[in-house]
Amino acid sequence: MTAYTPDPSAHVLDANLGLSAERARAGAHAKEQRHPRAVAPFRLWLLGLVFFGLFCVIGGKIFHLAVIAEARGPLKVIEYVLDGPADEHQRSRIQDRRGRILADNVYRKAAYADPKKIQDLEATLQGLAEIFPTLDMDDLRRRLSNKNRSFVYIKRGLTPKEEQAVWNLGEPGLEFLAEQHRVYPKGNLTAHVVGFNDIDTVGRAGVEAYFDPSLQQGVAPLELSIDVGIQHIVAEELAATIEEFEAPAGAAILLDANTSEVLSLVSLPDYDPYNPGAQSQAQLRNRATFETYELGSVFKVFTVAAALESGAVREDEEIDVTGPLQIGPHTIKDFKPYNGKMDPKTILSKSSNIGSAKLALRVGNRAQKRFLSSLGLLTHAEIEVQEVSAPKYPSNWRKTQTITISYGHGIAASPLQVANAFAAVVNGGIYRPATLVKRDPTAPLHDGNRVISEQTSIKVRKMLDHVVREGTGGNAGAEGYRVGGKTGTADKPSRGAYNEDARIATFLGAFPIEDPKYVLLVMVDEPLPQEYTYGYATGGWVAAPAFKRIVERTAPILGIEQILPAEESD
Amino acid sequence: MTHVTRSDTSLVGRWWWTVDRTTIGIVLVLLAFGALLSFSASPAMAERLNLEAFFFVKRHLVFLVPSVILLFGLSLFSPVWIWRLCLLGVVGGFAGMILTLQIGEAVKGAERWIDLGIIKIQPSEFMKPAFFVISAWLFALDRRMGQRWALPMNAAMLTSMIALLVLQKDLGQSILFASVWGIQLFLAGYPLKWMFGLAGTGIAGLFSAYTFMPHVRRRINEFYAPDGDHYQINRAAQAFNDGGWLGVGPGEGKVKNAIPDVHNDFIFSVLGEEFGLMACIGVLLVYTLLVLRGIGQAVRFDSLFTSLVALGVICQLGLQALINMASTLALIPTKGMTLPFLSYGGSSLLSLAVSIGIFLAVTRRRSRQESFL
Q: What is the set of domains in chain A, with CATH numbers?
């Protein structure tokens, strides 16, 4: 089928189409060189220009995308990229208040299989059994035999050696996936605050669970109010105390008295955030925020504050504390019975239950309830961890309850809530809910709720100073620092009655007491009396010394000025 | 072609001295780019379909051979022979398309393919060049010979073509057919107001497509919805962005893993990501050159028929490239249209070879006696 050579059939075709006339016309035309255009030049130019213009638009758009435009926002992770998903889907880091990392991400390889692609099932299973002796081979065989599936996890969190060994099996059906994995550089130390994630990187405890949705967004690191350095000291001292008094557990909290930021939150025993499944319930229980305790005499601080604020008692008024006090079927006794009168300061420093009861009766049960409610002690805390529980108190709050609650029995709250309430009483009278999130130091402090007047707060501080100088809190007297606080020793309720051999020993105080910057609570659960404590396992003997050591070690870091011995003696 | 002298009057010799060698050069450059990109983009697609990695690369290269043979073979024909073949082609093509409606195999939601065993062909692809040859002939008949029946005939041909394409849910191709037909009408020297009439009809047609064709409505709504599914075009935009001036390097791109069918409709984004802005501008320049050179070459002879044939096929290529690039760049809603010579696609490659072959055939230098219409 030749084409270009003159074609006899073309003539016929031309004739049919009436082309002969055209041919004749063309032949009649002038010179060969100057071809007249069959199409108007204007229209050709227009066509050319339009095309040129459109190509320029395309070029401009590419230039814009490639050079000018900002990179696009997060894009979906591509599942078949094996060398690690793109950065955009990282879970947010968690940092302490000084930017030290508490939780971060690494990628770990997971081996999976595509059953459709497996060439030799038996050899694969045998090879895998050698690499992972603990794998359930029967289960794996069943899952890998199912050709309807295209994704079967073999093992997650491979070590590089294991990964290489799986590679070396040379089985095309075995593939790898990089998975996000959370690391906790401070391990147990911050476990109760930070919490942990499950294998799919979903927060299951602590702030990891509380902030899970926003951490998933991966926008900015989450800055906590915790200071790891302080946390370390507090944990170390608490652990030492727990060991010393052969106690099973304890908790300690260090709060900024004004902002209510939590600088340290320790609950012992703690747990390994990498392996929460293998930990005991005792380890996983957050004793600072989740467990509620009847903390005993520390509540007398609230009773005295309420009495002074309401005008039910004057600062120098003496009250008869001769016991025992008989209220209906109940007999109220003091730990060290005392006959005579006491002013409120002494009621605190001698920790008189009878004095406290009488003050509460003067305040009245409604005002008492209202006051404790304003201190946040009757509703669950708004702290940013998953593990929070509501305080427990009697629904039937009458005279008897008013009395017992005045010295901290019959009301159980988490140590964090009690410390938070105490901060409001000593900081000048403003309640601000405790938080684990670092506050922007440049932002104005939020107003909070005034619970008592500045004057009342100052009076209470003086009394707390007295407790440490003269009273039950003597062991809390840190050297070089003025501290004030209150001891608490409570028998643990057990089966409807109080167990006199199982106590909660607490010391709750503030420093420096003349203008409190920090509030510290130390609580030891069921300490055993030691010989050198003369058989006592009270707040004053157990928790106060730990309080003292913590203040002595943390105050320099926190920038509290030391006072000279001469100054102190006056 | 070692020594082809002017005096060589053999078939090859005459061909060599009469054919437009610049266009051949441009097309070869584009084909080379296409082969290069197939190495980059196709393995990702092949792996997704559980095929051997170079499955599509091999197919692409295998299709290059018949394509090039077809291209050169067709360019040997005289315009009259081209006309004969295309007349057959159009009749056969219409038959094929009607057949597709009966037995066609749906590929990704559109019934456009006939399975011939070795290759699935898309009759409308092959119809394109033949169609524009016949429409050019009908325009020329009307303008030059005053054949009254030619224009209504031409319009009827376009209408039935569009009707068939709409039945196959292929709106992109019907826009292409209508546009090229309109360009031919414009170039044939009809009054300008006719153009406005045609444009108005086109807009009305598009509007009714939006109203009556759900898949069209969905695509267009998605394109304009700020929260629509813009995964593919966002991904493509990201690819250009990642590529920057010089690209991330051959084979280093990620977009091919993210967009299904990247070796086909989104091949331009692979070029942008792996070879960068400079390569994209380069390819764009080559296309511009092809179109402008084509327009210049098309009117070498005072034959309305051959001029319109050459302009028609060259505009078809140009428009196809523009539509593909514009949808990759999110300037227009996505259309299932290939990027000439660069996209993978046996059917598309063969069809392009036919187009260029026809272009070369009708623009070859020829003696005055052989002018037509």
A: 92-223 (3.90.1310.10), 232-568 (3.40.710.10)
